[in-house]
Structures are given as structure tokens and as C-alpha cells.
Fold this protein.
Amino acid sequence: MRWTVVVLLFFATTINYVDRQILSLIKPILDKELGWSNTEFGLVNSAFQGAYGLSLLFFGWFVDRYGAKIGYAVSITFWSLAAMAHAAVGNVSGFFFARAALGLGEGGNFPAAIKSVAQWFPRTERAFATSIFNAGTNAGAILAPAIVPFIALSYGWEWAFLGAGLLGLIWLIFWIPWFDIPEKKNISNEERAHIYSEIETSTETKPSLPWSSLLGYRQTWAFIIPKFLTDPVWWFFLIWLPDFFNKRGLEIKSSWIHLVTIYSMVTVLSIAGGWLTGHFLRKGWSVNRSRKTGMLIFAFCAVPILFVTSVGNWEVVLLIGLAGAAHQAWSANLYTTVSDMFPKEAVASVIGIGGMAGAIGGMLFPPFVGSVIDRYATAESADPAYAIVFTMCAFAYLIAWVLMYLLTPGMKEVRK
């Protein structure tokens, strides 16, 4: 039954990332309707990121206080309604506030999902389970370019937002009656013994670590700093890749196949990355050695995107597909380090704090990218501008890995 939990989390995350990509995919349509600059487009996306960061901080506390079931239900209800509200706006300021509302709702996704995994899985399976539900980010990124342009061009861009919001409300029909903590579910003795083979009995109680004390731990900062440095890379891919291909002469009617291929690669390879550190653990490696080795491998896999602007479009697909898979494998293991180092009653709070840091990084990066493109792109090519951004992305993971290692060389557990 624990894998059914992962399936539910996978579909929620898929819907989440379809919502996030719609605006980027309809950007060429809105460019004509609104006449906004790349910098303004970046600022609209920053509104989402800023609100998302605050939401993560709130939902981290809320999920630890009231449980993953209630936390997820509140979150997805809010973000589904906010997604549908996009259909009612028609100017830059309207999209600014609609994106902010979407961000306020979406902050419950990862705190609730990571807490659910910590409750239903032993340590050796958490990274793999996380990588599977986290693959929903890739599934959403695959589905969005495959269906959103068709819906927007055939029926109007408003229907893309309305459909995505409706999917979230449908998901609630399955989540509310089905999900609960293992103690309240009728599961076999074998599965119960397996779940508790490496973890203490799960409860939905108030955190035993005061929320205000979490920033005093090096382990918290070992999650915060890597999230701040690496989350913007993934947001850059989601927000700007359609525009990158568009400026290379591929309209969304042609570039969708490139985007779908990228995220298909990411989906397959990222799950393998989640499996890798679990494999190391099963071989007898320590948690510290397993996570750090895997994450170092993933960090090196991102470096080749240095060459994206000097190769053809299909070579771009291969390089970004590898880097995107490396990010998702990195992210799945980074999330898992929280449940490795903190008691499960504090997991969602730490995820929320670190997620807020990642959102702040994601908030600052889009307008920076937009300003770089507005300044350095020429009528002939935007590659010189994008080369600056891809260089920053290429080394973000290695820098984050070094800082994480310095903060937690042994990944010691925080005691209650």
C-alpha cells in the first residue's frame, strides 16, 4: 500500500508542474496580446516564486502541525482555484497577482509529500520513493508542452488554466478518503514490519523540535543553501526553455517535441538517480557516503550544459536532458537528507524553510535572466545572453555540494 501513496503523490506533483508551465508555454501568445518585455515576464514569474517561498514556510509548519492529509488537501484546493483564476485576467498586473496566488497555494506540495514518504517508507527506500513521486515534475513538464499549445491554439489560452485547476480538484476526490498515516490504515503485518524496520512509529503530533530552533542547526543550513543555489536552475529550465528554442527559430508548434524529449529523458534518468543512493545503502555504505557520493555524481552531470549555446537543437536536447535528470536526482536525494538528519515530526518544517530559500533563489533568477536577454541578445541570436546563464547553472551544483559537505561532513542526526 505504501507504493499507492507514491502514486497519489506522483499525480499531485504532475498536476502541480503542469500548472507551473502553462504561462511559459503560452508566452508567445501573450507577447502579442500584452506586449510585455522579457524583464516583465521575469517579474511575473518572480511573483509566483516569492509567494511560493512564503507558502512553503507556512505549509512546512502547517503540515507538521495538522498532518500531511489535511495539509495537502488545503494546498491543492487553493492552488487549483488560483490556476483557474488565471483565465479571468488580461493584463500584466493581473498575471502578477494570479501567479502570486498560485504560489501561495503550491507551497504545500513538497512538505506534505516528503513527510508522507518519511511516514510510509524505511530509510533505504526513501530516496527511491521520493525520486518516483518527484518524477511527477518531469511528467508535468512532458504533458504540458504536448497538450497546452494545442488547447491554447484551438480553444484559447484560458482553457489551459481552467483544465489544470479542474484536475487538481479531481485529485482531491481520491486523496481525502484514501490517505492516512500507517497506524490508521488496514495494512498487512509484513508491510507494517517493513515500514517500521528502520523508523520509529509515525504520529501526527506537534513537532518535538521547536520550529524557532531549527535555524540553529548546521543540518538545516545544509539543506537551505543547496536549495537556494540549485532550485533556480530547474526554474530556469521550466520558465525559459520555450523562449530559448523560440529565439533559435523554433515556434512552440515545432519546439514542443524538443521539450517533451528533454523531460522524457529527465523522467527516466532521474528515477535511476534515486535508485543509485539506495543501492549504495544496500551495499552497506553509510547514509553520509551514499548520499554524498550520489549527489557529487549528479553535480558533475550538470556541467556539460556549458556547451548548450554552441551546438545544434537536438544536441541541446541531450545536454539539457542530462542536466535536468541530474537536477531531479540531486533534488530527490537532497530532500531525503532532511528525513535522514531530522526526526520525522520536524521534517515538513525543515522542508518548508529550505523550500522558501529555493523559492527566493527562484524569485531572484527570472528577472535577472530577463534583463540579461534584454541586454545581450541581438537580432541575429540570443545565444550570447543565454551562454551567461547556462554557465552559472553548470557550476551551481558543485558549489552547493562543497558547501553542504563543509556544513555536514558526517550528516549527524539531530536528536530530539
Notes: The domain at 2-179+214-407 is CATH 1.20.1250.20 (Growth Hormone; Chain: A;).
